[in-house]
Amino acid sequence: MGSHDLPVDVLQSVDFNVQEAVQALGGISQAEYISRSLESRLHFVDNEIRQHVTEHYEDLISSSTGIQRVENVLSTLQSKSTSLSLSISRVKTKVDDSFFKAQAKVQQLENMQSVCDSLRMVIRVLFIGRRLQQQLENGDRDLPKAAQSVWQLDQLFVSSSELKRIEVCIPVERLANEAAQKIKVRLTELLQKGLIEENHNTLGSVFQAYYHLNQLTSCLGSVVEQLKKNLSSEVSKLLSVNQLNRDSTKSFGPGKANMPITGNSAMLRTNLWNNTEKIVTLCVSSIQKFHFVVSLLSKKKDSTTNYLSFLELIAADNEDLVSLQSYFKFVQSLIRSEYNKCASNSSALKQIIESEYPKFLKSLLSLRDKTNLYCDLYVENAPGISDYSSQDSSVQTGWKTCLEEFQSSYLSRSLSRLFDPVNLAFSKKDTKLPTADEISAIIG
């Protein structure tokens, strides 16, 4: 390139001006020179392009062919995609139709199943209702079965409220309610009768019926509460000051008041120990009845499962209710509290008990000996029940607590009487030795 040649970047500039360039290069001749130079450059570039194309024509042809092939593949894929989309739409339509038909069939089957269940429940209600009617006609013999039928009907009506609106089930529901009331009344009568007579069959049937009514725990609770209440009222009555002051040898005719008589110590002492013997008898009877009930519960089992005894079922929720140890503690606590109250209400009675403590001790020992037979209740294969034989030591300790207050007073009084001769012998101010009579009194 000569000294008058223009740079390439100047020629490529957007602001390039031909006239100014010509003037700068020295006129037309210089412009011709530049024009030839440009032509030669263009020819060079053209040759280079041609040579490049000649050398790489196969690659260019292959590239153009590949692009065409890709376009053909894309076109094929597009057509197949369109076809697949149409097929999916048709399949979706068929699936939706099949699904809606199946859904309708399922709903229909569910409705049929619900109707069948309702019909089965209605049939069962009618069957149990007829069976309940027959059981009620059989009397006390089928009382547990009648209670079970009442419970089954109650469960059916609770599980489905629609049964109460079905016309044929309304009389059965009314029958079940009436039967439940009659059964409860009759069970109460049989329960009292069974406790009084200690009849295993009667009381066992009552417990079985209460179990079927799902009220066994409440029934047993009322029985135990009644036993405790009766014993408490009788013991309290026998140890009341007015009762002990009455003269039991006199008869009182119409219009004559049985007024308490005060000041007769012999009569008071006699009444106290007579009533103490009665209390011993009452306590033995009460403990015997409780032992009888618990023993019966340990033998009775659910007739349907024949697995757990009633005693185990109750002990699982409330072991104290059927615990012999608990009932013994109640009796011991009752004796202790009532005799302490009796002694606090009357100084004469307190003096009698303290002075004749051995007689009181003898009565308590008699009560202990008579109730030892009812301390134990071994239930085979009953892991949920405590071993009652292991409770004997705590029961025996409980009897001692009934004597503590009177025992300490009696021992104190005995020690005082024991030391009276000694104190009398050495009470003189002089230093004389005790006389022979005083020594004899000390030695006894």
Textual characterization of the structure:
- It is a single chain.
- The chain has helices spanning 8-11, 18-25, 28-55, 57-137, 143-159, 170-197, 200-212, 216-238, 241-244, 265-299, 310-317, 324-345, 347-355, 357-371, 392-401, 404-425, 436-443.
- The protein is mainly alpha-helical and 444 residues long.
- Residues 248-263 and 378-391 have low confidence and may be disordered.
Question: Which terms would index this structure?
Answer:
444 residues; mainly alpha; 17 helices
In short:
It is built from 17 helices and no strands. The protein has helices spanning 8-11, 18-25, 28-55, 57-137, 143-159, 170-197, 200-212, 216-238, 241-244, 265-299, 310-317, 324-345, 347-355, 357-371, 392-401, 404-425, 436-443. α8 packs antiparallel against α10 (265-299) and α16 (404-425) runs antiparallel to α17 (436-443).
Roughly how many Å is the radius of gyration? 57 Å
Assign an overall shape. elongated
State the separation between the terminal residues, measured CA to CA: 166 Å
> What is the helix/strand order?
HHHHHHHHHHHHHHHHH
Decide which structural class fits the backbone: mainly alpha
* Poorly predicted residue ranges: 248-263, 378-391
Strand content: under 5%
Give a quick account of the main beta sheet: strands, pairing sense, barrel closure. Answer: none
Please report the number of helical segments: 17
Helicity, as a percent range: over 70%
Number of E-state strands = 0
Mean pLDDT: 79
